[in-house]
Amino acid sequence: MGNDLIRKAMDDLGKNFSKGKPLEKLHPLYEAIDGFLFTSGAIARKAPFVRDAWDLKRVMVIVVLALIPSTLFGIFNAGYQAQNALGLAHAWPDAVLRGLQIVLPVIFVSYAVGGFWEVLFACVRKHEINEGFFVTGLLFALTLPPHIPLWQVAAGVSFGVVVGKEIFGGTGMNIVNPALAGRAFLFFAYPAQMSGEAVWYGVDGVTRATPLATMASVPAGTTGVAALHQAGYTWSQLFYGFIPGSIGETSKLACLIGLAFLLITGVASWRIIAGCVAGLVSVASLIGFLHVKTVHPVLPFEWHLVLGGFAFGAIFMATDPVSASATRLGRWIYGFLIGALVVFIRTFNPAYPEAVMLSILLMNIFAPMIDHYVVEGHINRRTPRAQAK
Q: Among 37, 86, 110, 124, which residue's CB has the most CB atoms within a 10 Å radius?
């Protein structure tokens, strides 16, 4: 009965958005709300038919659900770190309430401003509002420091949606991940708020360096592991996530819970994630084995796995089906190169301690070329066999 009333109300409201009516230009907005509430009743009358229950909306919902553990932990950790900086008790209800006050405005601004651009472009181009922004809006917010100024959130998500996606034609046409494009814009435009100790501060200007910022300023003669221990970081802390950092990246355990959900539902490519891990482990181990002279201290691969946003990026960013490689072998190559670049940048770049964002964006650009050569390789192997017959 309730669904029938809502359906009738939506149908009555929809008449105002039909062709020739006053709100005709806003029809994509109505269509988006209707599509969110109800499954389309459209039926294919003639071939070809696709007998599959999956659609873009369902895939996006699955990804958002997979992000819930990282989001919830990010909320708790933001409050926990703020209380810790102020020397307050670590009661989890207080930490959650404080975290909600910090994180929810960031998520709200990301969705509100990004949603505005999505609706605007949909109305101008007269096409449906793509559900992809349900993921982009949350992903972008989770890649940000919790205390970032809200106007910078608006600027970053605007860049990500407009420049990173809409100028290429919208969802499905973008060559880079829009959320990462927005974060990259903020990093290079406002580095003080996105790197170093400023990414995490409490009331009265209390700051604390993130683990990667610690690695960027290790004194001569000190090993990387020793420097992290001296700064108060243990491997288990980095894994569980009780550390300063971007909202959604700190807890690797939460990321793994989301990964399990994505793999069970078949949404994420396990080949890309496995390739990222293989690339990181191989290069980190090789650098340590060969005793290569580096700019930053050499770390064992198990520390690289839990540092920074590697887990979050490999699971939720690198696997973006639009900007990642599409062929099976291409996904292995694409993921391996991301993992390898992460270690190279972290180890040899004197100016930029984190590498996940740039590694994924760079490989987004090269993903079409990787697929091209993989397909060409398949064709070249088949041609001799066809001629032999």
A: 110
